[in-house]
């Protein structure tokens, strides 16, 4: 005989979950900060619905998620415009709810219905959501949540392309230098993904926006912030020395202003920065088609450069034969250039 007086509640269907999330998020519009208790209750309802969504998408720890339900939920979330609500209501959600949202966002974006990613298609039709997420880096309470969501989006070329070509992209040059270290680091991770995840697309972007991009990037390389200099220099090597960007590199190493930046970084107090700068500086020097202006700078500064290079080493007693060979070649080339009659007009 069963002694239970209550029947277990019937699990919600994907349709019901999507509508419950939509309704609870929409209900937040009717609450104000003045109605503290009402707002708290509304946020509790949202948190409960998000926990249900997370359970349906990733299982409850004992049972695996039902694939058909996951697909159906993704479809319903798009159909009910929940994706848009998830983004726009993010700033007022509680910590636990935001954590669930980030977890679910990653799963939802991966859901295919037939051959199409339904949530991806929704965002492609509502690209302003990406701008909203980028701007959220200015709000340190939600910045890390938005960063995770953005990096999930950037995995898709169409969304990465939009951000790269949007006015919002320029904001990253500010966000990577924000005073809050965690936020600045997260912004740099997103910035790096934008410039390294899709080689061909990035190459096309740099070709079309060469001047404006490298003008802004120079500010990062010459930043007073050590972390900014170190990270931006490493990232420059990551995307500039890759084969798809060889034509960009060829253009970059013709410019005296960028040679001067690398020469300054060779003098940095950090060994790590010195070594990273060397790997770009050597391309300027080794270029068989150096313009006269570059030769003049190398010749005029050859004594200081040779002294810097002779003292340059990987550090900590590390033996690096390839580095030493490269350094020797660069030293010889600078010596050769210094003897050329290029200073004569």
From TrEMBL:
Family annotation (SUPFAM superfamilies): ARM repeat
GO MF entry, a single one: protein serine/threonine kinase activator activity
Pfam families according to UniProt: Mo25
One example of a Gene Ontology biological process annotation: intracellular signal transduction
Sequence similarity: Belongs to the Mo25 family.
Protein's recorded name: Calcium-binding protein 39
